[in-house]
Amino acid sequence: MFNQVAGVSRWALAAVTLPLVAQLAGSPPARAEANPAAAQGSGSDGFEGPEEPSMPSEPVELPVEQASETVPESDWRGTVELYGFAPLRATGSVTIRGFESDVDSDLGDILSALDWATFVRASVEKGRWGLLTDLSYVKLSGEDGTTGPRGRFTGNTKVSTTQGIYDFALRYRAGAEETAIAEPGAFTFMPYAGVRVLDMGLDVQAEIREVDGTRRLEAERSFGRTWAQPLLGFQATYFLSPKLRAFARADIGGFDFSGAKNYSGNAQLGLGYAVGNNTDINLSWRYLGINYSNGDERPSGIRSYQNGIELGVKFFF
């Protein structure tokens, strides 16, 4: 009997003091077992400790803050285009010290006289402002001979000409960035202003000989001139599909500042197709005109009007 009373007293004291101890320790109070006998079998003191908190069945993934944000793309961009211009027809005239000779050549004539040709365009841009350049150099030469009436004399003429056109300009871009691939409807418009440097050279040698080889006449005339022109122009692009775009270009230079006649101009219209993420194939029609005269009493100058096909490969960086 005494043992039963002592056991009941011990359980009553535990029920009263356990919540107070748990509260002071900062943990939830333990729940006393309703059956003292069952509790006594679970431990030496006859009561359970605080229940373990339940754990989630699956691990919870906590958001991990990245050590560094995505590196912003550079504002610098650029393009390089290698191209060739094939005039289907070239007309005009060449004047050397008052002596004028007309020119009317087709593509076959030009290709047969072609010694060298180099064409390249490039641009660099930061933000919306950039620089562009268009460099071209062509050298042609030819020789022609004729025999006079009754074969009494022969004539031979050699002609060599060089044409260098070098554009340098500052541009501003309105619209989307220049890319090989873009959403349909994306457009770019870039007006530019700068300077055009022209380097023209012409050398003519003529010789007339008797049938026996005796020289009767020999003459040589040459003309060379390098000059600069103010330049104004624009470039525009419009995407018809993600890989197909239409483009146009036009410019004018000169305004008669460096001679009695001094102007030049380009007009170009074509299509470009992306063959990769950063490469375009461009096909266009182009017109190029140059008119220059030094205005001397016995003038020297050149008039050249060319229209034809331009094919190029453009790389975007």
In short:
The chain has helices at residues 2-25, 36-42, 107-113; strands spanning 76-96, 99-106, 114-126, 129-147, 153-172, 174-175, 187-210, 215-239, 244-253, 261-274, 279-293, 301-316. The protein has 317 residues and is mainly beta.
Number of strands: 12
Shape: elongated
Please identify, by name, the CATH architecture of the largest domain: Beta Barrel
- Helices and strands, in order, run as HHEEHEEEEEEEEEE
Kindly give the count of domains. Answer: 2
- Whole-angstrom Rg: 44 Å
Helix residue percentage: 10-25%
What structural class is derived from the secondary structure elements?
A: mainly beta
Please, could you describe this protein's structure?
- This protein is mainly beta.
- The protein folds into two domains: 2-42, no CATH class; 76-316, Lipocalin (Beta Barrel), CATH 2.40.128.
- It is 12% helix and 59% strand.
- The protein is built from three helices and twelve strands, in the order H-H-E-E-H-E-E-E-E-E-E-E-E-E-E.
- It has helices at 2-25, 36-42, 107-113, and strands at 76-96, 99-106, 114-126, 129-147, 153-172, 174-175, 187-210, 215-239, 244-253, 261-274, 279-293, 301-316.
- The protein has a ten-stranded antiparallel barrel with strand order 1-3-4-5-7-8-9-10-11-12.
- Strand 4 and strand 5 form a beta hairpin.
- It starts with a helix and ends with a strand.
- The model is unreliable at 1-9, 11-25, 27-47 and 64-68 (pLDDT under 50).
